[in-house]
């Protein structure tokens, strides 16, 4: 993989993502140790992202690697809590190398797939976390009335941060990046584990 170009791409999108977190900070509850969003194994990773994640795994010290190894084994054999095996004590052990979806967790995002707009509210709104104070359960939407009532300075905004959009930026072509196919993290890890056992 072309690590240098992928890291240039990450630097660019992280500037954009961090700006959005800053603008929306009144609604954001993300803090070190909150890792509910890492406790699903359904997160999608493209081939390029997974290769980069494994770069991070290769950099881990032996002790951490062996914890991750045992969590991967338990995960792929279906014997563990459904959480990302790179999560240790509620902290990502490969933070620099995490996937794109891990970087956008927590913001309101939208996508346009086949001409259809989709608006995504972080699932942790249901846990009283991001955007919960302005969420309307009945309509499953952000309530402008609550935003006004509670005197927020910024409007909640949906950002074009869906992977389908981020993978198709002009920069991706300029840097010659190829994300390859996308699969659930657990499926990549099953192959990774099988290859190691051979
Ligand atoms: S996105 Fe939600 S679950 Fe994830 S760290 Fe932020 S507040 Fe916690
Ligand atoms: S790679 Fe890190 S940030 Fe992403 S789901 Fe796993 S533990 Fe969470």
Task: Please write out the topology.
Blueprint: H1 3-23, E1 44-46, H2 47-59, H3 62-76, E2 87-88, E3 91-92, H4 100-104, E4 109-113, E5 116-120, E6 135-136, E7 141-142, H5 144-149, H6 163-166, H7 170-174, E8 182-184, H8 185-197
Antiparallel strand pairs: 1-8, 2-3, 4-5, 6-7
Helix pairs in contact: 3-8
This protein binds iron/sulfur cluster (2 copies).
One iron/sulfur cluster (SF4) binds at residues 29-30, 34, 36-37, 105-106, 122, 124, 129-130.
Short overview:
This protein is α+β, with helices and mostly antiparallel strands and 198 residues long.
What does this structure look like?
- The structure is a single chain.
- The chain has one domain (3-197).
- 41% of the residues lie in helices and 12% in strands.
- The protein has helices at residues 3-23, 47-59, 62-76, 100-104, 144-149, 163-166, 170-174, 185-197, and strands spanning 44-46, 87-88, 91-92, 109-113, 116-120, 135-136, 141-142, 182-184.
- Bound molecules: iron/sulfur cluster (2 copies).
- One iron/sulfur cluster binds next to loops.
